[in-house]
Design brief:
The chain has 253 residues and is of the alpha/beta class. The protein folds into two domains: 165 residues, Rossmann fold (3-Layer(aba) Sandwich); 77 residues, no CATH class. Helix content is 33%, strand content 25%. The chain contains nine helices and ten strands. It has a six-stranded mixed sheet, sandwiched between helices. A four-stranded antiparallel sheet has the order 2-1-4-5, covered by helices on one side. Strand 4 and strand 5 form a beta hairpin. Helix 6 packs parallel to helix 7. It is globular and about 60 Å long. Adenosine-5'-triphosphate binds next to strand 2 and helix 1. This is Simple sugar transport system ATP-binding protein. InterPro entries: AAA+_ATPase, ABC_carbohydrate_import_ATPase, ABC_transporter-like_ATP-bd, P-loop_NTPase.
């Protein structure tokens, strides 16, 4: 099966820091792949390279087997890739509905729409529907998102990504700030969109969570893929061993 998204030999420097040293990665439609690795392994950098935020120095990215150039986040989104960034990208002064529709605002019908007037009631209605479908509970959807808790903000960012993605959703530590209940809801959303055929890439340092939600695991160490596992056959020791370099797996790249 052709992976929906494939990265081959991605190299990315930040000045003299070599964040990615020929990293490879792939994910297929309808699977959750956990991308794991120690702090500084290059996970967030890889996600940024695969969502148009950073431009790799070299390497190849393929979507459905065809080489693409992800030169901006807009290009990546147009190709069906949505991302929940570790350093959250929500607009704090806007309410959750406006954040959900950020960059994709619904305009009023007719002349007002042509003049750029937004259809806020319609966006609120659709946003409330999506939040409820995805199990995101907010006391109010018309307060600035900056006044919500960190976990609620993270839930809105997760909802926005799955609402708009058509092929791949990257989630960089989406549950890190969440309590038990919200965390389970996000994991349920991940399973649900996976079952609808989406490719989901989850970055997490929580190994029980990784083993419970993912179908496969890819391990990055020092900017390279060093191991891959099917989640069903992997143990905690396997994952930790690969991340720390205690175990080596031939031929991972
Ligand atoms: N904007 C940047 N400028 C300079 N160096 C950077 C930048 N972003 C990342 N790096 C460096 O690149 C390397 C990989 O960082 P990255 O954020 O991708 O790691 P990570 O695997 O996501 O780690 P964590 O689990 O802590 O989030 C690190 O050495 C980091 O210091
Ligand atoms: Mg990171």
């Amino acid at each position: 099966m052709t992976p929906v998204l494939q990265a081959q030999n991605i190299v990315k420097h930040y000045g003299s820091v070599e964040a990615l040293r020929g990293a490879s990665f792939e994910v297929a439609a309808g699977e959750v792949v956990a991308l794991i690795g120690d702090n500084g392994a290059g996970k967030s950098t890889l996600v940024k390279c695969l969502s148009g935020v950073e431009i790799p120095d070299s390497g190849t990215v393929l979507i459905d087997g065809n080489p693409v150039t992800l030169d901006s986040p807009v290009t990546a989104r147009r190709l069906g890739i949505e991302t929940v960034y570790q350093d959250l990208a929500v607009a704090p002064e806007l309410d959750p509905a406006a954040n959900l529709f950020l960059g994709r605002e619904i305009k009023r019908k007719g002349l007002l729409g042509k003049l750029g007037v937004l259809d806020k009631p319609e966006m609120r209605r659709q946003a409330a529907e999506e939040f409820s479908r995805l199990g995101v509970t907010l006391q109010s959807i018309d307060v600035p998102i900056g006044s919500l808790s960190g976990g609620q903000r993270q839930s809105v960012a997760v909802a926005r990504s799955v609402v708009w993605a058509s092929k791949v959703v990257f989630m960089d530590e989406p549950t890190a700030a969440l309590g038990v209940v919200q965390r389970e809801k996000v994991l349920d959303v991940i399973r649900r969109v996976r079952d609808e055929g989406m490719a989901v890439v989850l970055i997490s340092h929580n190994m029980p969570e990784v083993l419970s939600v993912s179908d496969r695991v890819e391990v990055l160490r020092l900017g390279r893929r060093v191991a891959r596992f099917s989640a069903a056959g992997a143990t905690l020791e396997d994952l930790v061993g690969a991340m720390t370099g205690a175990l080596t797996q031939e031929d991972a790249a």
